[in-house]
Design goal:
The complex is a heterodimer of chains A (260) and B (590). Chain A has 11 helices and 7 strands. Chain A has 260 residues and is an alpha/beta fold. Chain B has 2 domains: 404 residues, Cytochrome-c3 Hydrogenase, chain B, CATH 1.10.645; 149 residues, HybD-like (Rossmann fold). Chain B has 590 residues and is α/β, with parallel strands linked by helices. Classes of the chains: A alpha/beta (260), B alpha/beta (590). The interface between A and B is large, with 68 and 66 residues.
Chain lengths: 260, 590
């Protein structure tokens, strides 16, 4: 094994495993990935995994059990750089939507009844930065192939990865789509981090927001825009929350502040 | 009895494990554990619009995202009475074929095959099987390509929606898919030959019930409106709970299912067993060539069945493309007005029957129930692993148990990552039963039941124990003769643990005490016992899960009334422990 290669671990917490699967789906580049880096741990792809010191840990999934909190802290201790990959790790995922602990507790009970779990205790779903410091974020549900490969190449080459600070609308304009908001559809493009290449709008469908909120999005403006288009306030709140996980609370706090 | 809610959320790609605990000559426990935490997906979409639900609920699983998408759309369209034109249905089927090819080829070549040809993983296997590994990757890529063209993305594509598609693929794109499918055929035939001719071990083998969708019209396929069982029984889609009866076990956030109290299997092998006779053309020929009675009893043939389905999917693609191309016009998304309704969508995900049930009220999602294939297979996975472990132990091949259990789990294809690792064989200490009693106590103070025949020397030890316990003042003690008509036990369905005590032949040294879940006694052919049919008929499944057998190895069960010295000694040990239970249900001390 070449010791100069960066040591990389890919880890899955609770989620759909879509981000790890997407890495496997880089069929043509997969061998290169395995050659450019020393993949120490990747449960989905191989069985001879080592839990040692790492240069980079890519973590997918949100934290939903006590066992995962311990696992995550252990990963942080072993890795120089920790990257949150995918919606679950970056914002807590769909399952991060129950931001109120009481509501979460009630729903947990509704689903699992009174059976006491012996193997590990459940906790409210949170993104990984609720427990550890995260160096980089790679959003998406699932992450995009192109974005991942760009990110990965820079990382193994020793450069800081480039940020994608723009919303979906930027790709959408490049793709010369008609603005769906103008057609009265509830498109979340202006609020959502880009990386998918505006795939939904390319298919004449409104953006559902699955990359999570983009930094610096003008939430207030988008909120009133949708309201002006005739959407119900409750609906707007819900649709914005679907893919924003626990980070939606900052979103709405900001809205409240601006309202005052 | 408390009723366990059947709402559920179950998915298992990611962290899972299987473990077997061995006490002397007996496997006392097999657990298929899922370490993933709860996501409560079924509750997340409540209050959302049907469109949001269609986008969100497939996020349960990346590998089966198309199956989830098709299932939720079918459920919604049933609920909201949406009728889509044939072009839409055909495209959805084509998309489904993409997922089957992607998932099956990844599984058979990359996850299953290395075990059979003696390599630790597919990349190492490439040294000897370079061509296979490379073409298999291309085949997987082709499946992904189909999903991307129709679904919009490899994973969680948003293009398929209630009423149709946001955008239809072009004729060129469809034509390319057809010609590429035809090019793959020689390799597909090789795949079938390879996986149908693999030397599958004959352990574990046992009967089970298989379940899958009935596509109707005597056809093979991956969805339908009815569930068909290998027993010949049928359920309409909305009556799926007759089959699934979900419940929760304490070692997993994935729910479990049983049919009439027994485990059942879903997946490629279930489909081939139940409707394989309907395969036509080349896949029909291959079915006739390879299918035999071993496929009905041995879960390892899942891999062969998957290979057969790869062929079926490749044969179906050109047919589908030709049919789709007859409809030139792209159709706008079908609109609907209905704001109330309930609907169930049944599809066959690569790893088995997937059920989505969604209820809409006032235009918003009111209730969701999703039953995933791995949740349904979990019980059979545990059972077959138990059978394999016990058989290998009997044959003195304890060192093979770990690998064989992995092979079994992997054959069920329970989503990628949990099948790739983590089998464990544990050795129980010789007095393990003492710890186990402590554990059982956590579920309430047990009811003791003495079993056996006092006229056959050591076989009377269970009855003797019960009588002695009664003498010590314990009230919760019953004899074999008293249990059948005990209302507290069966009518009120007590949820306290039931601890049966008996002489059991574990092929150990006389006097060895072994404690194991009743479920494992029922699965262990060597331990089957005359009273068991009565008990298993009376017990609900929930009780069965909370029932245990404390067995003492007899020295002799010849006619006579004397209990042998080692058995008597063991009996006194057990008595000391059991009679020391104080009123709070805790053990005073050992």
């Amino acid at each position: 094994m070449n010791n100069n290669k960066p040591k990389i671990g890919i880890y899955e917490l609770t989620g759909c495993a879509g981000d790890a699967l997407l890495i496997l789906d880089c069929e043509n580049e997969l061998l290169d990935i395995f050659q450019a880096a020393d993949i120490q741990s990747f449960l989905m792809a191989k069985s001879d995994n080592i839990d040692g010191d790492l240069d980079v840990a890519l973590v997918e999934g949100s934290v939903t059990t006590e066992r995962e909190i311990e696992e995550l802290k252990d990963i942080r201790n072993r890795a120089k750089i920790v990257v949150a990959i995918g919606l679950c790790a970056t914002v807590g995922g769909l399952q991060g939507r129950f931001t109120d602990s009481e509501e979460w507790g009630e729903n947990l009970k509704k689903v699992y009844g009174d059976v006491e779990m012996t193997h590990t205790k459940a906790v409210q779903s949170k993104p990984i930065d609720a427990y550890i410091n995260v160096d980089f974020y790679l959003p998406g549900c699932p992450i995009g192939k192109e974005q991942f490969l760009n990110f990965f190449t820079r990382l193994v080459g020793g450069s800081p990865p480039e940020k994608y600070p723009h919303p979906v609308c930027v790709s959408c304009k490049y793709n010369e789509n008609d603005c769906l908001l103008n057609r009265g559809l509830p498109c979340l493009g202006p609020l959502t981090a880009d990386g998918c290449g505006s795939v939904c709008i390319n298919h004449n469908l409104p953006c559902v927001g699955c990359w999570g909120p983009v930094e610096g999005a003008n939430l207030t403006s988008a909120f009133y825009l949708l309201k002006d288009k005739g959407f119900d306030v409750e609906y707007i709140k819900k649709v914005m929350a679907n893919y924003s996980g626990t980070k939606i609370t900052t979103f709405f706090d900001q809205l409240k502040k601006e309202k005052q | 009895m408390k009723r366990i809610s059947v709402d559920h959320l179950a998915r298992v790609e990611g962290n899972g494990g299987i473990s077997a605990t061995i006490d002397g000559n007996t496997v006392t426990e097999v657990k298929f554990t899922i370490y993933e935490g709860p996501r409560l997906i079924e509750k997340l979409t409540v209050g959302r619009t049907p469109e949001e639900d269609v986008s969100m609920s497939p996020r349960i699983c990346a590998i089966c995202s198309i199956s989830h998408r098709n299932a939720v759309i079918r459920a919604m369209e049933n609920a909201l009475s949406v009728k889509v034109p044939p072009k839409v249905t055909l495209l959805r089927e084509l998309m489904h074929m993409g997922e089957m090819i992607e998932s099956h080829s990844l599984h058979v070549y990359y996850l299953a095959l290395p075990d059979y040809v003696g390599f630790p993983n597919a990349i190492a296997m490439a040294s000897k099987y370079k061509l296979e590994v490379e073409i298999a990757l291309e085949m997987k890529n082709f499946g992904n390509h189909i999903m991307k063209v129709i679904g919009g993305r490899y994973i969680h594509g948003e293009n398929p929606v209630i009423g149709g598609f946001g955008k239809f693929p072009t004729q060129e794109e469809l034509g390319w898919i057809k010609s590429r499918a035809i090019q793959f055929m020689p390799f597909v035939f090789k795949t079938v030959n390879l996986f149908c001719e693999l030397d599958y071990p004959d352990c574990p083998e046992d009967e089970t019930v298989y379940a899958c969708c009935d596509p109707g019209d005597g056809k093979y396929g991956f969805w339908g409106d009815e569930i068909l069982l290998s027993t010949g029984e049928k359920f309409f889609r909305d009556d799926y709970k007759e089959l699934t009866n979900e419940f929760v076990v304490s070692h997993s956030y994935a729910k479990r299912s049983r049919y009439n109290g027994k485990p059942y299997s879903v997946g490629a092998l279930a489909r081939v067993n139940v409707i394989g006779e309907r395969l036509k053309k080349e896949s029909g020929k291959m079915y006739k060539k390879y299918f035999d009675k071993r496929w009905k009893r041995n879960p390892l043939f899942h891999n062969a069945a998957q290979a057969l389905e790869i062929l079926y999917s490749f044969e179906r693609i050109p047919e589908l493309v030709d049919e789709i191309l007859q409809y030139r016009e792209d159709i706008p998304i079908v609109k609907y007005r209905k704001k109330e309704g309930k609907g169930t969508g049944l599809v066959e995900a690569p790893r088995g029957l997937l059920i989505h049930h969604h209820e809409i009220r006032e235009g918003l999602v009111h209730q969701v129930d999703i039953v995933t294939p791995t949740a349904q297979n979990a019980e059979d996975i545990e059972r077959y692993c138990f059978i394999a472990a016990q058989k290998l132990l009997d044959e003195g091949k304890e060192d093979q148990i770990r690998d064989r259990m992995e092979l079994v789990v992997r054959a069920f294809d329970p989503c990628i990552s949990c099948s790739a690792h983590l089998a464990e064989v544990k050795k129980a200490p010789s007095d393990d039963w003492k710890n186990k009693i402590n554990e059982i106590m956590k579920g309430g103070s047990p009811i003791f039941i003495g079993i056996g025949n006092p006229d056959r020397s050591d076989d009377g030890v269970g009855i003797q124990l019960a009588l002695e316990l009664k003498k010590c003042g314990s009230v919760d003690v019953l004899l074999e003769s008293e249990i059948e008509n005990d209302e507290n036990l069966w009518v009120d369905e007590t949820d306290r643990p039931l601890l049966f005590m008996d002489a059991v032949d574990f092929r150990e040294k006389a006097g060895k005490v072994t404690l194991l879940p009743m479920n494992n006694v029922l699965n262990n052919i060597a331990l089957s016992h005359k009273f068991l049919p009565i008990v298993s008929g009376l017990m609900t499944y929930r009780q069965l899960k909370n029932a245990y057998m404390l067995g003492i190895q007899p020295e002799s069960i010849d006619n006579g009334h004397e209990i042998s010295t080692p058995v008597r000694k063991a009996m006194n040990d057990v008595l000391t422990i059991l009679s020391n239970l104080n009123s709070s249900g805790e053990l005073n001390e050992f």
